Structures are given as structure tokens and as C-alpha cells.
Amino acid sequence: MWHGAGVAAEPPQTWHYGLVAQWWAEFNDDFRAHEIPYFLRFVERGQPALDVACGTGRLLLPCLRAGLDVDGCDVSADMIALCREKAEREGLGANLYVQAMHELDLPRRYRTIVVCGAFGLGSDRDRDRLALERFFDQLESGGTLLLDKEMPYADARQWTYWLKKERASLPEAAASPRERRRTSDGAELGLRSRVLEVDPLNQHVVYEMRAERWRDGELEAEETHRLDDGHYFRNELRLMLERTGFVDVVVHGEHEEREPRADDDFLVFVGRKP
Ligand SMILES: C[S@@+](CC[C@H](N)C(=O)[O-])C[C@H]1O[C@@H](n2cnc3c(N)ncnc32)[C@H](O)[C@@H]1O
Fold first, then answer.
1. pTM above 0.90, yes or no
2. I need a surface site. Which of 34, 134, 167, 221 has the fewest CB within 10 A?
3. How far apart are alpha carbons 243 and 249 in whole angstroms?
4. pLDDT for the residue numbered 223
5. For the segment 261-271, what is each residue's pLDDT rounded down to a tens digit?
6. Over the range 219-232, which residues count as b (16 or more CB within 10 Å of their CB) and which as e?
7. Is the distance from the beta carbon of residue 113 to the nearest atom of ligand 1 less than 6 Å?
8. Positive or negative, the Cα torsion across 236, 239, 243, 248?
9. Which atom of ligand 1 is nearest to the CA of 51?
């Protein structure tokens, strides 16, 4: 086990607040939907389950609809509020908590913990190590952790900046969203992200998101949010799970129960608490 000496005091920097949270609730319901059946299969095999960084419920809601016993948590109170609204609209009860993953401390122990699209966000390496310890403690003995991670080389835009010459041009210029989408209340939302910093030594990328809401041709609200993202390659993250105490650690490619391949953008790390 590792211990988190020197963990930063500032809250996790993620952009999932305000207008960005609204965008998630409106438009990101079935984003990368192939992950949902993959994770559902594991949750069916081991309950109760916890959806860490559940966002607005893209995975949690299908689990609840299937009658599975799943709790959710997320650092963003805005995402949790929108998730709760969606669940209540469908008459689904859920235990939802606002907590950062490196400070996870919940009343139940779980057979399965899923972290989908979130490990490394709003974080740094010390916090990520702590988060793995928190997942370990929060699992029942014999329970399973599933954690997915997009590989650093999967996103051509930020991967280019790992090269010294390209990195010299950062930060990217600020700009307004290229297009807007109509929301359920008749407004229009637009998002545009930019890369601010890439630190290949620490495998850390900082992004900024500009969000705008327009109504009847007028700019009604604008926000900017920052996102920290810690990058991991397969071998480092597998070793971190093992060092935390997880056993039988396997890595799956693209949310399929098979060996990963070099062309896979997403890997899933699966480990068991002894
Ligand atoms: C890309 S979204 C994914 C949401 C959901 N898991 C899904 O797949 O739809 C990332 C989520 O992670 C949450 N998040 C970011 N950093 C976090 C942290 N350090 N601890 C807990 N949640 C975090 C954000 O608030 C956001 O809801």
C-alpha cells in the first residue's frame, strides 16, 4: 500500500460543471455506448456495485433500469444533481454522493467498482494512487475493480504535443464553439476545448473548455472551466493496481473481454481484491 504524503490541497480541476454538466445531461446519454453492456455484464455478476464518477448517469441509469443494486458518486455536485433528476423522472431510487475519488469514503462495501471515462481526471499522480487505495478499501474481499483509460496516443491532437517542437506552440488559441446544439428548453449550447499545457515527463495534460449558451440569437451565458488529465500507458497502470494490492490483474481492449492490441484506443484494467 502507498500513502498520500504531499497530496495537493486544491480541489480536483474538472470541467463538468454548469453549462458543461448541462451538455452532458442533454447530449451524452449514449456516448461510446458499446461500453455500457460490457460494464453491465460485470455489475450483473457482482453487486452491490459502485459507479465512480457516474456523471449524469450514462452507465448508472441503465444499471438501475435493469434492477441492479448500484450507487453512484462524482466530484461534481452539478453532474450528481442532473443524474438525480434523471433518475427521479424515471422513478428510480439511487444512493448518490458528491465525493472526489481520492477521498472516497462511503457507508457500503461493494462487489464491483466501475470507473468509466474518469480515472486521472482532475488529478495528479499522488491522488491517483490514493484513489486506487480508496477503491481497494471500498471493495469487499473478492470484489472486482474495473477502470478504463484512453491511451495517450489515441487522441492525435494532444499526442502531437508530446513532441518538443509542437509543444512550443502551446497554449492553443482561445476560440468560440464552432457549432451549437438545441437543448430541451429551446436554448442552444456550444462547447470548445483547447489544450493549454502538455507535460510528457509527468504525463499530464491541461485543457480548457469554453461553454456558451445562446437564446433567440443572444449570448445568454458563457463559462470557462479547466480540466487536468493524467495519462497512463498499459504497463504503469497495471503495476499500480498490483502495487495497491489487486491480484489477477488483466487488461482488456476496447471494452471487449479480450487481450488488448496496439490499435485499441481504450483499455480496461480489471483487478480483484484478495
Ligand atoms: C467523462 S465524464 C464520465 C461520466 C460517466 N462515468 C460516463 O461515462 O458517462 C467524467 C466524470 O468524472 C468526474 N470527475 C472528474 N474528476 C473527478 C475526480 N477527481 N473524482 C471524482 N469524479 C471526478 C466528472 O465530474 C465527470 O462527471
1. yes
2. 34
3. 11
4. 95
5. 999 999 999 99
6. eeeeeebebbbbbb
7. no
8. positive
9. 6
Look at ligand 1, atom 4, and give the residue with the nearest C-alpha. Answer: 55
If you take atom 15 of ligand 1, which residue's CA is the nearest one? 121
Q: Which parts of the chain have pLDDT scores under 70?
A: 1-9, 30-32
- State which ligand 1 atom lies nearest to the alpha carbon of 79: 27
Query: Which amino acid belongs to residue 13?
Result: Q
Give the tens place of pLDDT for each residue, 5-21: 455 668 778 899 999 99
Residue 13: name the closest of 172, 120, 114, 159 by CA.
120
- Closest CA relative to residue 232, chosen from 111, 86, 129: 129
Residue type, 27: F
With residue 166 as reference, give the H or E element that holds it: helix 164-167
C-alpha span between 97 and 161 (Å, rounded): 36
Q: What is the DSSP letter of 11?
A: P
Copy the grid coordinates of residue 150. 484512453
Ligand 1 centroid, distance to 44 Cα (angstroms): 22
Say which amino acid occupies 130.
L
Cell of 125: 499522480
CA–CA dist 182, 26 (Å, integer)? 9
Look at residue 236 in the predicted model and tell me its pLDDT: 97
